[in-house]
Amino acid sequence: MHDRRWPTYANREVMLEGAADEDPRGSLRVRDGEGRVFLDAIGGIGCTPLGHAHPAWRAAVDRQLGRLVSVANTFWTQPQQQLATRLTDLFCVPHARVFFCNSGTEATEAAIKLVLRATGRDTIIAFDGAFHGRSLGAVSLTANPHYRAPYVTTPEDGEASRFASARVLRLPFDDVDALRDAFRRHGPSIAAVFVEPVQGESGIFPCSRAFLCEAREQCDRHGSLLGLDEIQSGSGRTGRWSAWQSIVGDEIQPDLLWLAKALGGGFPIGACLATESLAEHMSPGSHGSTFGGNPVACAAGVATLRIMEEEGLLECAAAQLPALRALAEATPLAGVAEIRGVGAMIGIQIGQRSEKAGNQVARHLAESGILVTVCGGHTIRLLFPYRVGHAELETVWQAIGAALVTRG
Fold first, then answer.
1. Is 346 strand, coil or helix?
2. How wide is the angle at C-alpha 194 spanned by C-alphas 144 and 344, nearest 5°?
3. Number of Cβ within a 10 Å radius of residue 139
4. What's the pTM?
5. pLDDT tens string 75-122
6. 355 exposed, middle or buried (CB, 10 Å; 0-12, 13-18, 19+)?
7. CA 355 – CA 284 distance, rounded (Å)
8. Packing angle, helices 209-222 and 176-186, rounded to 10
9. Nearest to 190 by CA among 287, 104, 255, 277
């Protein structure tokens, strides 16, 4: 079959068709059109925390499909209100308000706009290895100045807008000294620090407790905002609702954080939470998303969070990394340099730091019936559904061992 999609992905010659089995807890396996079955350690790149075709999740989505599919965002819907309330309860952002969208990229865009409006400053600190999305800035192409200002300043605006597009100050990740120095030199211009508590795309690198605490302290001292990108690490992936809670507990609180991926249980949804006082800087027309807060997506999100609680899935997620490390201790693999991560967000670094090495192992795993992704070029990334246990992790570990032997 000829692939009619843009060549934006390194596509695999596999067409997946459905869950491989009917399981009341959600299937951990998928099947293709030829009847082959695969253990799914990709999980839609972290989007299926319940597994595939979880019956209770499907029922919730089906019920909403029979009621309302889409409405204008000038109206509330029950699923939207339920999900917003649940998120503000779980994520401990004081008196939070929520902006709903469709993806992590859109949630990042909302966060950028919010901190620029709220602070009147133009600099956002980001970090080496960070991945926050793929958008380029559609608002810069938009003609109506009502939508463009105060985010983009262009010559045709006449008088310059008070706020300009963000300037990015990029620092080494998890470097407390570099962060302090940046604030010492640029403090008055820094609108916010944007950090992933666990960097996903660069190879699964958690930041330290000291680093997050320092970021909070510097932001408080200089009137800047702390924004946490929990697109991949949030919604229970690390064993707490957010990765920052896994790293520092409830000692610090962000000013804003944003989520996507696992939040909808596989249905597209993103959300940006901000303190109430911060959210008040937005006004009608300052941002929007036609499908953001879609009733079906919000119903999927409500069901996902409820099932996680009812089935104790956060505890299951928290146990994944310790279980894999126990396997590694019992059966060491010479070709594995390091195992990193938190909870059900795991990176297995192949000793030879090359993209070719990681991809060779991934191909061998696929031939063995295990689907994984490679991040950072040489790290096998596991983003299993949360209830995965010892048996599945052992299957992956043994298959990696076989792949490393095959590579020689």
1. strand
2. 120
3. 16
4. 0.93
5. 999 999 999 999 999 987 878 999 999 999 999 999 999 999 999 999
6. exposed
7. 46
8. 10
9. 255
